[in-house]
Automatic annotation (TrEMBL), chains A, B:
Protein name: PLP-dependent aminotransferase family protein
Keyword check for DNA-binding: yes
Taxonomic lineage from the root: Bacteria, Pseudomonadati, Pseudomonadota, Betaproteobacteria, Burkholderiales
UniProt KW keywords: Aminotransferase, DNA-binding, Pyridoxal phosphate, Transcription, Transcription regulation, Transferase
SUPFAM superfamilies: PLP-dependent transferases, Winged helix' DNA-binding domain
Record bears the keyword Transcription regulation: yes
Family (UniProt): In the C-terminal section; belongs to the class-I pyridoxal-phosphate-dependent aminotransferase family.
Length: 492, 492
């Protein structure tokens, strides 16, 4: 239901010209009249394109002279390099994710947080609270009996109907009966893993990847085999192919193809197709987490990897958490040929989800309001992300690297070599600033100088101060001089 | 917060006198004036006690003559015998519960049901719908931001506060921080099992027991060791002791001490104390499911087994499903010394529960309304249960046996030897009547001539017709003459 907007296409074209160096800083952008003629567009489209470029910081307007190319601070920051080797990391290193996450969770819970840059979710204001509230109130008014009636065996059919309709937009044709609703994407991932693998089995994942995936794997007694992933394109197909030949005990591949958490990478369509085919050939199921796909900057929604699946070998997982209802704990899976086993595991794990939330979510997700909300959210995210990147570029020390993603909620920031992100996390937390240290995203220790920083809120003066303070802490740690401003006896 | 009512105590005393044969059918009950004098109670108390006995069918009023003892139909039905042997059933028999449950679920989903006698939950009318609706509406009005805010790491503190207060009533003193909120008791049981045992481990359970427990065990790759259980007193302490000496690989004992599903049994306090001590001595954790404890006929709430736990060896699980909010999927555990591991597993499995439902549940559960609701529910359940038992006693064939429980939601009915409850289930389902066949409650096949029948609704003329029809089907099957009234081509 997404309409690619002409002005966004036009703005994108000029952004690329600036990024690639075709247009240089201080050069004048073609006049609005020229844009109209060259691209055969209306005045309004040409003007809107210029305004988008201005909002994103790529051009600045000079009165009576037109738009001039700027080089935003973010364009000075070097990208995160591609992984050095394509060899998977030995899963024998796989230990302790539970402990690290529990320790992270405990520390976060123990410290009041004033600025949360640690989450992979946008600020509450960015979500359609009133629409959700109205929808919930309507369900409660018209169907209060749902609160006191045991949930029917297969849950609410209306929500699965809407999910099946929305799945068409990412290239998936499934019937509502082929969808299982879960408590968040977390339960979906757990059920998918349990459906296809046993304790002791090896699961291939991106390196780095979302800590929830590593924790689910560890909590189920499985082993994560970390496959090198590119900050641009996600999991390396070559590295996965190599691993499938070397490690014959791989029982599943877990992937986040679109706006990866924490990398921000998007897997190119040809790689999605190759991985679908490669895994089908090896009879290794793919578990796809597409929680972030709808948070794209470009006009087009990226396709699901599952849309290249011809044998039911891909289990597709999604969630309402990132896109429209962070407080409602709704997820889902399309389990392909593991449907019967996933249905059984869902019943054994938590029984069908309660109905009220599903019916309210279906009402919102099935309406045009959902499309309008996403359009607005995506525009905000693009703007906020650029603001955060600009601030980081301005105030983090030399040697900091970052590959600006084209969508999603987070930034994967490489600190100068040797900087301990665990230490940065602890020092920042003492000042009420929460970030996620790189050690949460891999069992390998390869990312101990990375931070995941949320880009899900506007850079207000308060947020800017927090990022600047974070930059100071990083600079201190990078220089090897440990001088936190407020040393705490609890955390020396 | 429960006040034992004097008139209920008085009625209970005379009920026992009738049951034990001290007072015989057609004998006259002492006059109201005599009751007042003998027991030193008010006119109102004496009258209320007589009315309770009349409602429960133990006496009948004859105009101007007083109350006369009746023998309700249920007093003619023989109790289910004690298990014949105290030897646990070999867990190598443990296979296929998944398949049986999936097949049951699929058949139930495929057939429209007009009379549901298959559930272990009361009719929706028996629950405080309006109070829950109002509480939900209030949360949505005053805290709509909860819908769009990621749930904080340890969930809602208010609900755990109320749970800790209510736990005092069953003899448990825990702090709110020691409680983990889950999606129903099902998730609580899963987390408890995963906290203390690994795939391949053996778990001791009652035989028979709730199929959800058997399914959770099987789905986690564990093995259920079925310990003989008495229809009166639940799991045999002797049999468990024997099993703990014989099977050294038992890693946990799962118990439903109060108003067991399906048995209806209540474990005597001395057995609870002995099991707590026995398991502590063997260092085998106990997982207690106390979902039904508040559905007691007697004035006093039965104590939790965990109240005899001195070392944190008992994990206590509870739920809102049976007592006040079947549609809200709220459960909880008090994990004792496995708290850190349970918290981690909850985070890895489904993340913290969403807040709206918890806050609304806390409001209802923390108020006097909850006590009043439970008092009313308990009185209804007692009445309904007696009505269902009377109807079964009247219209099921000779050889049917049933031990009337003193609380809870279900009846465990033994059909004449050789009667297939699977066949009865299928034939009844074709006529729109759902029951739960005994094969769901054990891996042993020992209960293939048992039915679990819900006692959670009044015996209206429609329900009475359904039970009578069920009695006909049972009689047909018991006699070996298979003549369903409406043969279906789909299920010959």
């Amino acid at each position: 239901m997404d309409t690619p907007r002409l002005y966004l296409q036009l703005a994108g074209r000029y952004r690329q010209a600036i990024e690639s160096g075709t247009l240089l800083p201080s050069q004048r952008l073609p006049s609005v009249r020229n844009l109209m003629r060259t691209h055969d567009v209306s005045l309004s489209t040409a003007l809107q394109a210029c305004r988008v470029l201005e909002e994103q910081g790529w051009v600045e307007a000079r009165p009576r002279s037109g738009y001039f190319v700027r080089r935003p601070a973010r364009s000075t920051i070097a990208p995160v390099p591609e992984p050095e080797s394509l060899v998977a990391i030995n899963p024998d290193d796989f230990v302790g994710m539970h402990h690290r996450i529990s320790s992270y969770v405990a520390k976060c819970a123990a410290h009041p947080v004033s600025i949360n840059l640690g989450g992979a979710v946008a600020t509450p204001d960015a979500y359609p609270m009133e629409a959700l509230q109205r929808a919930m109130a309507r369900v409660l008014k018209h169907q209060p009996g749902l609160l006191v009636r045991a949930v029917p065996i297969h849950g609410d059919p209306g929500f699965r109907q809407v999910l099946a309709q929305r799945a068409l937009e990412v290239g998936l044709q499934v019937s509502p009966e082929e969808i299982v609703v879960t408590y968040g994407c977390t339960e979906a991932l757990n059920l998918a893993l349990r459906a296809v693998a046993q304790p002791g089995d090896t699961i291939a994942v991106e390196s780095p990847t979302y800590f929830g995936i590593l924790q689910a794997i560890e909590s189920l007694g499985m082993r994560a085999l970390e496959i090198p992933a590119s900050p641009q394109h996600g999991m390396s197909v070559e590295a996965l192919s190599l691993a499938l030949h070397t490690h014959t005990d791989i029982k599943a591949v877990v992937l986040v193809p679109n706006y990866h958490n924490p990398l921000g990478s998007v897997m190119p369509d040809e790689d999605k197709a190759r991985i679908a085919a490669l895994c089908a050939r090896h009879a290794v199921p793919v578990i796809e987490d597409d929680s972030y796909g709808r948070l794209h900057d470009e006009p087009n929604l990226p396709r699901a990897l599952k849309s290249w699946d011809q044998t039911g070998n891909v289990i597709y997982c999604g969630s309402a958490h990132k896109t429209f209802a962070p407080g409602m704990r709704l997820g889902w899976l399309m389990p392909g040929r593991w449907r019967a086993r996933v249905e059984m595991l869902k019943y054994a794990n938590t029984r069908p989800n309660d109905s009220v939330v599903q019916i309210a979510a279906a009402e919102v997700m099935g309406s045009r309001l959902y499309d309008r909300h996403l359009q607005k959210l995506r525009a905000s995210l693009l703007q906020w992300r650029n603001q955060v990147i600009d601030t980081i570029a301005e105030c983090f020390p030399t040697g900091t690297r970052l590959s600006p993603p084209r969508g999603g909620l987070v930034l994967w920031v490489e600190l100068p070599p040797g900087t301990s992100s665990d230490r940065v996390f602890e020092l920042a937390l003492q000042e009420g600033i929460r970030v996620a240290p790189g050690t949460l995203f891999s069992n390998s220790g390869r990312f101990s100088n990375f931070l995941r920083i949320s880009a899900g809120q506007a850079v207000t003066p308060t947020v800017e101060r927090a990022i600047r303070r974070l930059g100071d802490i990083v600079a201190d740690q990078a220089a090897g001089t440990s001088s936190p401003k407020k040393p705490s006896p609890r955390n020396p």
